[in-house]
Amino acid sequence: MKMYKHPGKPSSFHLLTVLFIAVSSLTGCSPAPSVVFFGASFPDWLLCTGIGVTGMTLLHLLSSNLHKTGWLSPAVVVYPCVTALISMLAWLIFFPS
Asked: How many CB atoms lie within 10 A of CB 18?
């Protein structure tokens, strides 16, 4: 009966090779989507989040002026969800690809 012999500790070359392959597989295929404002690049999701917050603020002001704040209750749940909805719609409208 043959006993299995453990090959020992892997060499540092093998560990570095595996590490290099793992890290290189994490790289993206294209640069991150960004929008340039006044020479500075901002990620697209940041722009869409700003649009969502602005849209929710306008919706809140509109419902307050019309005395219909009951439509947006409970506010703790509805406000973040509507903000996310407006942000995602902005993403689909402005960045469809």
From this structure: 11
What string of DSSP letters covers 70-92? GGG-SHHHHHHHHHHHHHHHHHH
* DSSP state letters, the chain: -PPPPP--SPPHHHHHHHHHHHHHTTS-SSPPPEEEETTEEEEHHHHHHHHHHHHHHHHHHHHHHTT-GGGG-SHHHHHHHHHHHHHHHHHHHH---
Rounded-to-integer distance, Cα 19 and Cα 22, Å: 5
- The answer, yes or no, to whether residue 59 has pLDDT greater than 80, is yes
Question: Which pLDDT does position 7 carry in this prediction?
Answer: 65
> Which percentage of the chain shows pLDDT scores above 90?
37
The two three-digit tokens of residue 57, written as one number: 């603020």
